[in-house]
Design brief:
Layout: H1 4-7, H2 10-24, H3 29-73, H4 83-94, E1 105-110, E2 118-119, E3 127-137, H5 141-144, E4 151-161
Antiparallel strand pairs: 1-2, 1-3, 3-4
Helix pairs in contact: 3-4
């Protein structure tokens, strides 16, 4: 019986040795590991930035709509503007870093003794409600793909009773 090694050609043996040497060699493993981990690390980092931005926008909207409602309950109107335009201006003043279009606002009120909301800013002693429907576009492309159009819609509202203004 002939030894198994003897049947294998020397060129094949040299190839096998080279493959073993390459597998045992750790040169370049750090580069491969970095190439595998870097995209994941970037995704997590930009996801955190997206979440922080979304959180900031939500807090700014909550504060702005609260300020706008507080302005609205006084019945004060800015010269040359309607009551609703004055409330929108107060909201925009409270949120200078956001661009809030007119169609993102909704005004409703509930007259004393009623149990349904009626459109408009309302009058004295009504419960006034300001609603803002704001769309935020996500920055991270992979995260954006999970949301319709890459946007998240934030709806914030605040309601307060109007003062007895003239």
């Amino acid at each position: 019986m002939q030894n198994r090694r003897a049947r294998i050609q020397p060129s094949v043996l040299s190839r096998i040795r080279r493959v073993r040497e390459r597998l045992a060699d750790s040169t370049g493993t750090s580069l491969v590991e970095a190439a595998l981990i870097t995209p994941l690390l970037l995704l997590v980092t930009f996801g955190i930035v997206d979440f922080a931005s979304l959180f900031y926008v939500h807090l700014a909207l909550e504060n702005g709509v609260s300020q706008a409602t507080r302005f609205g309950v006084t019945g004060v109107e800015i010269a040359g503007l309607t009551r609703e335009e004055s409330i929108m201006a107060a909201m925009r003043d409270a949120t200078p870093t956001l661009t809030i279009e007119d169609d993102m606002f909704a005004f409703s009120h509930m007259p004393p003794g009623a149990n349904v909301w009626v459109g408009g800013a309302g009058g004295a002693n009504d419960i006034d409600k300001v609603t803002v429907n704001y769309s935020w576009t996500l920055m991270t492309p992979l995260v954006r793909s999970f949301f319709d159009g890459g946007k998240i819609t934030l709806i914030v509202e605040s309601a307060m009773k109007n003062e007895a203004f003239e």
